[in-house]
Specification:
The complex is a heterodimer. Chain A is an alpha/beta fold. Chain A has 19 helices and 17 strands. Chain A folds into two domains: 126 residues, Chitobiase, domain 2, CATH 3.30.379.10; 335 residues, TIM Barrel (Alpha-Beta Barrel). In chain A, the strands form three sheets. Chain A has an eight-stranded parallel barrel, surrounded by five helices. In chain A, strands 1, 2, 3, 4, 5, 6 and 7 form a seven-stranded mixed beta sheet that branches. In chain A, helix 14 links the parallel strand 15 and strand 16. In chain A, helix 3 runs parallel beside helix 4, helix 5 packs parallel to helix 7 and helix 9 crosses helix 12. By secondary structure, chain B is of the alpha/beta class. Chain B has 13 helices and 16 strands. In chain B, the strands form four sheets. Chain B has an eight-stranded parallel β-barrel with strand order 7-8-9-12-13-14-15-16, surrounded by four helices. A four-stranded mixed beta sheet of chain B has the order 1-3-2-6, with helices on one face. The longest helix of chain B has 18 residues. Classes of the chains: A alpha/beta, B alpha/beta. Chains A and B meet through helix 17 of A and helix 13 of B.
Chain lengths: 543, 392
């Protein structure tokens, strides 16, 4: 019978229903968590998943999902999100405590019925769901720590009366599970909160799922950034790639070098103070989001020169300086003294294990014009190959940053121009032409890669362009299985040339959601009609 | 003198002088919007023929006022003589593809005033929804709105829009687009739309307004009578674009009518038959008509003062269409290069800015018939969450 089969299948290889999902190995820790002393919940008759069951608004689509028609009611006045008794994260876990309150608010919102109401007299029609118990199973759940590339975001959710159970290895998985649970709860025509009996086994396909925000081309007020972090959490994004400074402005207020923002920011009102930065980092952490800052050099640094004399290369016309400046000057010791001190600060301010060092689009013309640079090239035996000078510079920066025990991410040019990278360098592929071949090359050389090239969301166009972002298959590049494993994820980029707080949110969302599902869900989840259905519901929910 | 302030004599008053009264009226196509602004030491004078010109002048004056580092407001000595090149400078909002809450419309009117737009073209209903609450036919919005309680414009809402616009010198031209683009009219007006056929029996779906029934013209007449009293502007936009003939072709009764009328297989003649009668109805109510270019392209006999609205970018190229329309003697409105809903990356405002509306081959009388143009913000991908940054 179906019930027996359901039990036998259990939590290891789940029913497929209408959502055909490849059988993927469940992490051993999760399997471990399952074989516990708690009695297996009584599963109701599982029916084939149909379109009437509201997993028509789950986004991103979980790896394994089955729902039944059986509905459970939730009373806002009685329903609670709690720590399970077996959980290794308890009330001391502030991160989860805050998440419980946040998700309760998302689900029941302005509902008046949050006060304890009267139970209807007489027999109730539908069974009631009283609690979601959250059980974190790892000895090091992560409550006080920061999420990182190796964090576990897997979770297992069983929704059945009277108590639903959310199990996860680490708090990060619990956060993902809470988001999914909140997406399962819906209101019927009469305003009752319902959830269908379900079982979900979920984990991300890719570990690095990021959004790039550019706060140099246009300053983004804190509120914008925080709203964006909320939206990221709704879509299970887990990396904020903060492209914080660039040519146009330097809003990062440095402790060691206050002149950088004093002279380089658009104005005193267009600055991120240390407090602002900590706020972003903590707000992100509460949502399981890593903050990877990017201090892009040696190009993209015009604004650095305002507050740091002699950092940038003076350009020449013949024998005379023109008064304009180019990339960071790679031939001066003072440059590296500055960078040593500057990255010391950055390494301590930003807790993530990685810093993005940029390295893209270095224009050589200024270097070529400068007689001292040319002299240096000769001395070093670089000939006229300025890529070698660029690599010379990058190398030294990479070494500086490594000495602070940070890993680094770089744009693809750093790899393309043959700098010597540490094995755990992450190369970000962004150039649109032939990016699949670049992925082959990068992973073929043994480096970890992330993909941004097809996901430049600042390139707006008319109509439903989310479809083209959704249809990208990151692993569609020539390479072995080992190579494919080196592609750890991707990023949707919203460069700021034409973006500020007045249009950021509607421009980025829900288009970025398409990238979110591509990076989280299974490779086989590609049906555009189904995605449209779920995405339109998801968008309304996000509003 | 020692204590002379760096800015010269402080200005205390802007005197506004209007020659013709008209505060309580509505602006029209013929309204004069010219003004003169004279700013000199001790004298700030704004003079205009009409209140509408005064409004334009006030906007300009507000743009002249600057503020220095110390926070002092100042204005430079200035002489301005200003008037619009084109009398019809419009913006189209589409409240059918997505409902726009009142505040979005009012906010848009504010920004229109900052930019001296003077026509709000309210494309109020269409296929997806019917948010206009009609007094005569309440079922139209009850059945046709996305949500009859929340996604409608009540009579009071419409009045608020009209007055908010009037106070900014903006005309409100309502568009009730027919015979196509009317799917949402069907549920609230049974028998209005053409039943499509699959072979010998109705398929259950509906097409454009049914042009062969008398009841259609009774309905349309009553509706437009109401609309013409609700909306005070002389002009109504009647639509008439993109009529899909498939449904008409499938319907045997229509087929019979076509034969009877000697239209042969040319359904454009049937379309024209409908539009003709509609235009007559509207002019008998005492209103002028604006129609999309298909009405002209399909050879409908329209009155000489019917305004033709050119919206297609090609087939024919819109400048050619402008030439044809004006050559035939009709006033023309240009929208084709200004479909702002068609977003693209980068500074696309430049392309819109570089359009020269009179860049077509024609004699001066033709050029005079171009009364202006409209920027259109169709609503397929636009609602209150993204309207303002997309439009401005």
């Amino acid at each position: 019978s179906r019930r027996a089969m359901g039990r036998a299948v259990g939590l290891v290889g789940l029913l497929l229903g209408l959502f055909l999902v490849p059988a993927v190995l469940v992490s051993t820790s999760l399997r471990h968590g399952v074989l516990r002393t708690e009695p297996e919940p009584e599963l109701a008759e599982w029916e084939a998943v149909s379109n009437t069951v509201p997993e028509n608004s789950l986004w991103p689509l979980p790896q394994r999902l089955r729902t039944s028609r059986r509905q459970l009611q939730l009373a806002p006045g009685r329903f609670q999100l709690v720590h399970g008794t077996d959980s290794l994260a308890g009330p001391a876990c502030g991160l989860l405590q805050d998440a419980f309150r946040r998700y309760y608010d998302y689900m029941f919102g302005q509902s008046d019925r949050r006060k304890r109401g009267r139970r209807p007299v007489g027999a109730q029609e539908e069974p009631e769901l009283l609690q979601l118990q959250v059980v974190v199973e790892s000895l090091d759940p992560g409550c006080q720590g920061y999420p990182h590339l190796g964090s576990s975001e897997a979770y297992h959710l069983t929704v059945t009366e009277p108590v639903a159970i959310l199990k996860a290895d680490e708090v990060w998985g619990a956060l993902r599970g809470l988001e999914t649970f909140s997406q399962l709860v819906y209101e019927d025509d009469y305003g009752s909160f319902l959830v269908n009996e379900s079982e979900i086994d979920d984990f991300p396909r890719f570990a690095h799922r990021g959004i790039l925000l550019d706060t140099s081309r246009h300053y983004l007020p804190l509120k914008s950034i925080l709203t964006n972090l909320d939206a990221m959490a709704f879509n299970k994004f887990n990396v904020l790639h903060w492209h914080i400074v660039d040519d146009q402005s330097f809003p990062y207020q440095s402790i060691y070098f206050p002149d950088l923002s004093d002279k380089g920011a658009y104005s005193y009102n267009h600055i991120y103070t240390p407090t602002d930065v900590q706020l972003v980092i903590e707000y992100a952490r509460s949502r399981g989001i890593r903050v990877i800052p990017e201090f892009d050099t040696p190009g993209h640094t015009q604004s650095w020169g305002k507050g740091q004399k002699d950092l940038l290369t003076p350009c020449y016309k013949g024998q005379q300086p023109t008064g304009s400046f180019g990339p960071v000057n790679p031939i001066l010791n003072t440059t590296y003294d500055f960078m040593t001190k500057f990255f010391k600060e950055i390494s301590s301010v930003f807790p993530d294990a990685y810093i993005h060092l940029g390295g893209d689009e270095v224009n050589f013309s200024c270097w070529k014009s400068n007689p001292e640079v040319k002299e240096f090239m000769k001395k070093q035996g670089f000939g006229i190959d300025y890529a070698k000078l660029e690599s010379y510079y990058i190398q030294k920066i990479l070494d500086i940053v490594s000495s602070y025990n940070k890993g680094y991410m770089v744009w693809q040019e750093v790899f393309d121009n043959k700098a010597q990278l540490k094995p755990d360098t992450v190369v970000e592929v962004w150039i649109g032409n032939n990016y699949a071949y670049e992925l082959s090359r990068v992973t073929g050389a043994g480096f970890t890669a992330i993909l941004a090239a097809p996901w430049y969301l600042d390139y707006i166009s008319y109509g439903q362009d989310w479809k083209k972002y959704y249809s990208v298959e990151p692993l569609n590049f020539p390479g072995s299985e080992e190579q494919k494993k080196l592609l750890i994820g991707g990023e949707a980029c919203l460069w700021g040339e034409f973006v500020d707080a007045t249009n950021l949110t509607p421009r980025l969302w829900p288009r970025a959601s398409a990238v979110g599902e591509r990076l989280w869900s299974s490779r086989s989840v590609t049906n555009l009609e189904d995605a449209y259905e779920r995405l339109s519901n998801h968008r309304c929910r996000m509003l | 003198a020692e204590n002379e302030p760096p800015w010269g004599t402080p200005c205390t008053q802007l005197l506004v002088s209007v020659a013709t009264p008209g505060c309580d009226g509505f602006p029209s196509l013929d309204s004069k919007e010219s003004y003169e602004l004279s700013v000199s030491e001790g004298s700030l004078l704004l003079s205009a023929d009409t209140v509408w010109g005064a409004l334009r002048g006030l906007e300009t004056f507000s743009q002249l006022v600057g503020r220095d580092e110390n926070g002092t407001y100042y204005i430079n000595q200035t002489e301005i003589v200003d008037f619009p090149r084109f009398p019809h400078r419009g913006l189209l909002l589409d409240t059918s593809r997505h409902y726009l809450p009142l505040r979005a419309i009012l906010e848009t009117l504010d920004v229109m005033a900052y930019n001296k737009f003077n026509v709000f073209h309210w494309h109020i209903v269409d296929d997806p929804s019917f948010p206009y609450e009609s007094l005569t036919f309440p079922e139209l919005s009850k059945q046709g709105a996305f949500n009859a309680m929340s996604h409608v414009y009540s009579a009071r809402d419409v009045q608020e829009v009209l007055e908010h616009a009037r106070l900014r010198g903006i005309r409100v031209i309502a568009e009730f687009d027919t015979p196509g683009h009317t799917r949402s009219w069907g549920p609230g007006a049974p028998g209005l739309l053409t039943p499509c056929y699959l072979g010998k029996s109705p398929s259950g779906t509906y097409g454009p307004i049914n042009p062969i029934l008398n009841s259609t013209y009774e309905f349309v007449s009553s509706l437009f009578k109401e609309v013409s009293t609700v909306f005070p502007d002389f002009f109504l936009h009647l639509g008439g674009d993109e009529v899909d003939f498939t449904c008409w072709k499938s319907n045997p009764k229509i087929g019979a009518f076509m034969k009877e009328m000697g239209f042969g297989e040319d359904y454009r003649k049937l379309e024209s038959f409908y539009i003709q009668r509609l235009l007559d109805i509207v002019s008998s109510i005492g209103k002028g008509s604006i129609v999309w270019q298909e009405v002209f392209d399909n050879g409908v006999k329209v009155r000489p003062d019917t305004i033709i609205h050119v919206w297609k970018e090609s087939s024919p190229p819109y400048m050619e269409e402008m030439a044809n329309v004006t050559k035939a003697g009709y006033p023309a409105l240009l929208s084709a290069p200004w479909y702002l809903n068609r977003i693209s990356y980068g500074q696309d405002w430049i392309a819109a800015y570089q359009v020269e509306p009179l860049k077509f081959k024609g004699v001066p009388e033709q050029k005079d018939r171009v009364i202006g143009g409209e920027a259109c913000m169709w609503g397929e991908y636009v609602d209150v969450t993204n309207l303002t940054p997309r439009l401005w």
